[in-house]
Amino acid sequence: MMVGLIWIGLLSTIRVVLGSELSIYAQEIVGDSRRIPLAVIDYDIETRDLKVIENNDDIVSGKRYCISGDNGDCFSYMSMTKPFHYNLIIDIHDNKISKLSLAPNTDVDGIVPLIREPIIGEEATVSKLKKTTKTYKQVRDERQSVNEQSSHDTAEEDEEDNRSWLIKNWRQVLIGLLIYNFIVGFLQKKEKEQKANEKSD
User: Which keywords does this chain's UniProt record carry (predicted)?
Assistant: First the structure.
């Protein structure tokens, strides 16, 4: 019993010293359904230390893979290429891994882990809105000033327009003449047809 407790204590001490392990797997989307280990990462959340223990590139380049962690849930679907140039982004929130992402990065060799933590954004300043209520007199005065302004504008337009009535209304005169010619032409045509019908009878 005592040996068992010592053994458990020794294992927990080793676990604290070494941190935790995170395994990353690749599984073909179409075809082979076995999970191929890509990398094993030793991490310590408290000190933010990351170390790649094992990097495996036994995958076929160009095939589409489901990339998953220890739990088997896919966090990335991608076409893997060899040699590896990827960042494993580990999002940490409240000292727990909240999200994993695998992103291509040509500046690195292999699978290089990165820790990303949430950044506190700026808070918008709150200002109290002031409601202004206008009295009836203020509303009436505003309407009156708007009406005076619009009547003043139309008066200026009338003063500036010294053209004759025919020049101002030439469109209406033209439309009237066209309608008159159309009606007269139609009536003359009808009268000619009526005379032609009477002669033929």
Answer: Signal
